[in-house]
Amino acid sequence: MFHRLFYPRQTCMLAATHEDKSNVTVVDWATPVSVKPPMLAVALNLKSYSLELLLASRCFTLSVLPESMADKAAAVGSATGRVIDKVDEYQLKLKPAKSVKAPRLDGAMAWVECELQGVFSSGDHALVVAEVMETHFPDEEAGKTPMLFNWGNKNYFGIKREWKEEKGKEREEKNGREKDEKKEDTRLVVVKKEEKKEENKKEKESSTTEKKEEKKS
């Protein structure tokens, strides 16, 4: 099928809640769609129970999974929350989010908290577009853990990636050094131009002197 051309894809877990019901589902089809404001899109099957809860609550969280959660991802992605309580069945731990009512998945590497902005029909899936209200990056140790990817048909594997965020002061120092380097480069260009002009002037004067001497002779 055509969508296999776009694999492997990173595997995340979406969580939604409404009233006293919570559910989680596995998604591979998720992507950023805007930086300002920060927004992302997730494709969910029209029969998804999480989609139903998400539409009712108008919010959800998306968790970045580590490779160690491959078995849980396979299990969660094979069941429906309409029949079983997946949180209880697969011993998933949820904790409150900061900006939305949907829970976060404990044990994930990172999370984004999202508020629903729009839903669009796209065949057998619904394209959910949401604004990212809160982002939780992994700490230094978690950042060294391989992230979970799917080759398709739940063939999971991990890719290691170091998450490093520049601190404000370090970023300012780096930007300052880059500006100083650019200024220095500009000064060098100006100096070289002046030196070239001086050389051309001297060559021109020398040439004029030689011509005068030739005429005298």
Using the CA coordinates, give the radius of gyration.
Answer: 30 Å
What is the CATH superfamily? Electron Transport, Fmn-binding Protein, Chain A
How are helices and strands ordered from N to C?
A: EEEEEHEHHEEEEEEH
Helix content: 25-40%
**Shape, per Cα inertia axes:** elongated
The level 1 CATH classification is Mainly Beta
Strand order of the largest sheet: 3-2-6-9-10-5-4
Query: Which percent range describes the beta-strand content?
Result: 25-35%
Task: Report the strand count.
Answer: 12
Q: Provide the CATH architecture.
A: Roll
Q: How many helical elements?
A: 4
Describe the main β-sheet briefly.
7 strands, antiparallel
Q: Give the termini distance in whole angstroms.
A: 91 Å
As for the number of domains, it is 1
> Structural class of the secondary elements?
alpha+beta
CATH-derived topology: Pnp Oxidase, Chain A
